[in-house]
Amino acid sequence: MTDLLELAVSILEAGGIYALMALAYLVVLRPTGIINFAVGEWATLASFFSVATLGWWNLPYIPGAVLALAGVAAIGALTEQATVRPMIERGAPILTPILILLGMVVVYREAAALGFGTQNLRVPPPLGFGRIDLGPIAIPMQSAVVIAVSGIMLAGTWAFFERTIWGKAFQAVAIDRVAAGLMGINLRLVAAFSFAGGAAIAGTAGVLQAPLTSAHYLMGLPLAIKGFSALVIGGVGRVEGCILGGLVLAACERLVMRYAPIPSGFAIGVPLLLMILFLLVRPTGLIGARGRT
Amino acid sequence: MTKTRLTRRALLAGTAAAATAATLKAPAIAQNAPIKIGVITDRVANSAMWATLMGEGVELATKQVNDAGGVLGRRIELAWEDDQDRPDVSATRARKLIGDGVVMILSLSSSTAAQQAQTATLEGKVPHMSPSHSADTLTTRLNNPYFFQMGPLASFQIRTLMAYAGTRFRRVALLTDNSALGTVNATSFRQGLQQGNIQIVADETFERGVTDVTPALQRVRAANPEGIFHAGILGAEMALFFRTYHQMGLRQPVLGSFNLSIPTYLDLVPGLLEGVQFIDVYDDVKPEVVDFANRYKAVHNKDPFSLPAYGYDGIMLTVDALRRAGAPDREKLRDAMHATRNYTAVIGARGTTIGFAPDRRIGFPENGCVVRTIANNKHGHAVWRGLAAS
Amino acid sequence: MSAAPPMLAVENLTAGHGPVTVIDGLSLAVGAREAVALLGPNGAGKSTLVMAIAGTLRSRTGRVDFAGRNLIDLPPHAIVAMGVAVVPEGRRIFAPLSVLDNLHLGAIRLPAARGRIGERYESVFALFPRLAERRQQRAGTLSGGEQQMLAIGRALMSAPTMILLDEPFLGLAPKIVDEILATLHVLRRAGLTVLLVEQKTELALNFCDRAYVMQKGRIVREGSAAALAGDPALSADYFALPAGGPG
Questions:
Q1: Distance from CA of C23 to the nearest CA of A (A)
Q2: C contact residues 173-232, partner A, Cβ 8 Å cutoff
Q3: What is the pLDDT tens value at each position of chain A, 293 positions in all?
Q4: Which residues of A touch B204 (CB under 8 A)?
Q5: Which of A13, A155, C53, C97 places its Cα 20 to 30 Å from the Cα of C47?
C-alpha cells in the first residue's frame, strides 16, 4: 500500500513534467502548425539560466526562477523571429521551419555546452529536500513543488485558452489562420507569443526537474521525447490532452517498472511501445482536437 | 715500411677523430629540439570532464620533468589535439600528431576513440598509451604492439570490489543506467557477483533522462538486499538515485565503480554520499600519492584524485621509458615501454607496481585497486586493499 | 456619382498567389455610403480582389486608398483597425467556438473601453435575433443561413465603415436570403458602405447602386445598376458573358 501511494506521488510528479513538455509543443503547434522538437533544449537552457540566477547570483527563488524563464522565453521569441518567420513569410512549406528547429536543437545544445560547460551543475530547489509527512507516506518536498507548480501552470494555460479573449484568439489562429487575420488578430504577434510561451512552459519543466538531477547539456532530448509521447497519447488538440497524456505515460512507466515481471531494461521500452500502439489504433489520441466535430 | 704503418695509423687516427667529431656534433644540434608527446583530449563532448582532469595531471608532470632539466637533456613539448570524443576524428588527429613527429601519443578521451586511434598508431608505428581506460579489449581487438594500457581493467576493479563484497554480503541489489558504459559495467558486476556466489536479489536499470527512480528503488526495498551495487556512470541519474535513496529511507551500504570517484557528485548531492564506497586506484597513504597530492594542491588549491593521477602517471611512465630507451626513437621507446617492470606510479595500491609482461600490454596490476570511502563529503581513506600483498 | 472623394479607391492593383498573377492592373472606386457590386464568373478573380484589399495576399502592387490612407503595405490586422471588415467566401466562422466567442473575436481590434463590447453585441443581436437565441451554441452546429448571419455579425462587431461581402448568399434558401438582404438594407440606411461580390447578378443589381464586371482579372464593364440590369448579356441568373467579350 505504501508502494502504491508513493507511486501515486511519483506518477503525479512525472506526469506533471511530461504534461508541461507536451504543452510546450501544443502552444506552438496549434497556432502555427509547427512541431518544435527544440522544446527539450529550452528546458535545458532554462535550467542553466537558473544555475546562474539562483546559484551564481544568489537571487531569492521566485525572482531567480522567473528571470530564468523570462530569459528562455526571450530566446523562444527571438528564434521565431530570426529563423521561423522568414520561412513562413516566404511561403515555405511547413516542413522547413520544423527542420530548422531540429537544427536549432544542435545550436542550443552547443551553446549551452560552450556557455556552461559539459559538467552536471547543481540547481537549488525552492523549498529544500525535506519531506511532508502525510500518514503512511512522506512526500518529498520537491515532488510537492513539481506537482503544485505544474498543476498551476497547466490550469493557468487552460484558463487562458478557454476563458480569455486572447486565448480564444490563439485558438482562432489554429482553426482558421486567414479568418483570424481578417478579424484583426496580429498573426505575427501570436506566433511570437506562442514561441515565447512554449519556451517558458518547457523552461518551467526544466527548472522543476533540475534540482533533482542537475542541469546538464544533454538533458533536453529525453524530455523532448517524453513530451512528444505524452502529446501523442493525450491527443494533439487541447490542454486536457496534455495532462491526460502525461499522466497516462507516467502511470504506464511507473506501474510497469514496479510490478511487471520483466527486467527493468525492457520496462524502459514499454512507453514507446505504448505510443506506437496509440498511433496505430487512435492517431488522434485520447482526446480529439476541438477542430474535429 | 715505417712510413706505410705511420700513414695507416695516421689514417686510422684521422678517421677516428673525424668520427668522434661527427658524433659529438649530432647531439649538440639535437639538444635544442624538444621531445614531442602528443595528447588527444576531448574539450567539448561526453568525456570532456574526464579528459580535462587527466590533462591537469599531464601538465603537472610535464612541468615537473622540464623544471628538473627534461629527459635525455631535452625538454618535453606537449602537442594537444581535440577529438571531440569521436573515434574517426581521433584517428585523424593521431595521424596529424604522427606527422608532426611525436614519439608517444596519450589518449585521454573515451576508449572507443582510443581504439580507433590505434589504427593510425599501428600504421604509423608510434607508441600509444591509454592512461586510464578500463575496457578489456583495448590491447586485444587490434594486435597493435605499439599500444599500451596503463589503467585498471574493469575486470580487476570488479574482482577487487567482489573480493571485498564477499567479505561483507551474501544478498545484494545491482543498479545501473542504460548508457553503453553503464551496461558494460553492469555485465561485469553481474558476472563477478555470480562467480562469488553472491545472490542478486534486485537488478534494476535507470533510463537516461528518467525523472524519478521511485519504482525501481521500491523493487530494491522490497527485495531487502544487504548492500547495493551501482554500476552506472551517468551523473544526473546517479544524483537522482542518491536523493531518492535518502528520501525513501533506504539504509543499505552503497558501493560503486570508479565513477563514484568523480568529485562532481560531492557538489551535486552534498552530504548524501557519506559512507559510500567505491573502487579506486588512488591509495592515499602511498608515499608517491602524498608527493603527487602536495604538488597538485600547490598549483590547483584542491585535493587531487584518480583522474589527474592517471594523466600524471601517463607522462611519468613515458619519461621513464624514454630514459631506458636512451633516445627519443619510436622503436626504442616502444621496446623500453614493453620492458617496464616494477614501476611505482601514483596509481595503484601501496605495494603494487606497473609493468608489462612479455605477452601482454596491460600494465596495471590485478591486485592494484583499493576500496575507498567518502566521509565528511570528501574522498576519505582507502578502507581495503585486501588483494595487495602488503 | 457623388462629388466627394471615394471611400475606397483601388488604382492599378496587381495581385496574385505566389508567382501566379490573378489581378492585373485593376482599378475601381466605392463612394461613401454606396453599395457597389462586383460581378463576374468563377475564376475572374473576385475573391482574390477582396483578399487583396483586405491585406491577406502577400504579393500586391498598386494603390488601395481607403479614407485617405494607402492600404497596400499594411497587414490585415491594421486594415481592420481602419474600419474595413470582411465577410469572406465560405464564411470561415470559427466552428468549435461559440457564437458569442465568434462575435467577440470580431471585436478584438476595438480600441475603445470594454464597455463598448456590450453595445456591439446588442446591436448585432438586434439585427440578427436568431444569433441571440443561440449565443452559447457552438458555431459549427448552426444552420447554413445562421452561420452566414454570424459571419456578417462578426464583421459588424468592429463597427466598420465599410464591409466587403464575398458571395454571402451561396447555398442559402430564398427565405434566408431575404432575411439577410433586409438586414443589409437596414445597415445601408444606417450609412454602411458595401462592396458585394456576387455571381447572382439580378440579386446584386437589385441591392446595389453601381456595379463592376470582372473577367480574367480585369474590369470589363462598369455602370449604374439600372443600366446593367437592362443588359441582355447579363440577364441570366448566373453570369455568362461569351468568352472574349467586350473589353
A1: 20
A2: none
A3: 788 999 999 999 999 999 999 999 999 998 888 999 999 999 999 999 999 999 999 999 999 999 999 999 999 999 999 988 888 777 788 889 999 999 999 999 989 988 898 888 999 999 988 888 888 888 999 999 999 999 999 999 999 999 998 899 999 998 998 899 999 899 889 999 999 999 999 999 999 999 999 999 999 999 999 999 999 888 877 899 999 999 999 999 999 889 888 887 787 787 788 778 878 887 777 776 544 33
A4: 264
A5: C97
What ipTM was estimated for this complex? 0.89
CA distance A56 to chain B (A): 14
Partner residue facing A185 (CB), from C92, C93, C108: C108
Which domain does A55 fall in, by range? 2-281
Q: Is A164 on the interface with C (CB under 8 A)?
A: no
A near B: at least 3 beta-carbon pairs less than 8 Å apart = yes
Query: In one letter, which amino acid is A92?
Result: A
Q: What is the CATH number of the domain that holds A48?
A: 1.10.3470
Count: domains in chain A: 1
Chains B and C contact (Cβ–Cβ under 8 Å for 3 or more pairs): no
| Contact check, Cβ <8 Å, C77/A178 | no
For residue A289, being part of any structural domain is answered with no
Write b or e for each residue in A188-216: b if 16 or more Cβ atoms lie within 10 A of its Cβ, otherwise e: eebbbbbbbbbbbbbbbbbbbbbbbbbbb
Q: Which of residues 44-63 of C touch A (CB under 8 A)?
A: 54-56, 58
Q: Is A146 helix (H, G, I), strand (E, B) or coil?
A: helix
- Residues from chain A that touch C93, judged by Cβ atoms under 8 A, are 179
Nearest residue of chain C to residue A175 (CA atoms): C94
Distance from CA of B260 to the nearest CA of A (A): 14
Testing the interface with C: which of A182, A187, A238 to mutate, by most C Cβ within 10 A? A182
Q: Which domains are assigned to chain C?
A: 1-83+162-176+190-247 (3.40.50.300), 91-160 (no CATH)
Is there a contact between C96 and A176 if contact means CB atoms under 8 Å apart?
Answer: no
Q: Is C158 on the interface with A (CB under 8 A)?
A: yes
For A72, half-sphere exposure in the C-beta direction (CA atoms, 13 angstrom radius) is 34
Domains detected in chain B: 35-152+285-365 (3.40.50.2300), 155-282+372-384 (3.40.50.2300)
Cβ–Cβ < 8 Å for B119, B93: no
Q: Given 3-state DSSP classes, what are the helix, strand and coil percentages for chain A, each rounded to the nearest 5? A: 75, 5, 25
Closest residue to C80, CB basis, from A89, A182, A291: A182
Task: Give chain C as a 3 state SS string.
Answer: CCCCCCCEEEEEEEEEECCEEEEEEEEEEECCCCEEEEECCCCCCHHHHHHHHHCCCCEEEEEEEECCEECCCCCHHHHHHCCEEEECCCCCCCCCCEHHHHHHHHCCCCCCCCHHHHHHHHHHHHHCHHHHHCCCCEHHHCCHHHHHHHHHHHHHCCCCCEEEEECCCCCCCHHHHHHHHHHHHHHHHCCCEEEEEECEHHHHHHHCCEEEEEECCEEEEEEEHHHHHCCHHHCCCECCCCCCCCC
Residue B203: list chain A partners with CB under 8 A.
Answer: 263-264
